[in-house]
Amino acid sequence: MQIADDLLRIAKGEVLDDVWNRHVYSVDASYYEIAPAAIVHPVDEQDVSQICEYSSSNRIPITARGAGTGLLGQSLSDGGIILDFTKHMNRVVEIENDYVIVQPGIVKGILDKELKKKNKFLPPDPASSNYCTIGGMIADNSSGIHCLGYGNTIDFIEEISVVYPDGKRGFAGTGKFDSQMKKLFELLSPFTGIIRDGYPRVSKNSCGYRLDAVMAEGKFQPHKAFAASEGTLGIMTSAKLRILDIPIHRYIMVLGFEDMLAALSTVPAILKFSPVALEMMDHTIVSFRGKATGNTGCLLFVEFVGNSSNAEEHLTQCRQHLAGQCSVLEYASDDQSLTKIWQARKGALNDIMKMTIGNRKPIGLIEDTVVHPDYLAEHAASLLQTYRENRLDYVMFGHVGDGNLHTRPIIDLDSEPEIEMIKRIADSVFAKVIKSGGTITGEHGDGLARVGYIEMMYGKQLTALFSQVKKLFDPGFTMNPGKKVLVQQ
Ligand SMILES: Cc1cc2nc3c(=O)[nH]c(=O)nc-3n(C[C@H](O)[C@H](O)[C@H](O)COP(=O)(O)OP(=O)(O)OC[C@H]3O[C@@H](n4cnc5c(N)ncnc54)[C@H](O)[C@@H]3O)c2cc1C
Question: How far apart are alpha carbons 292 and 393 in whole angstroms?
Answer without folding.
Answer: 18
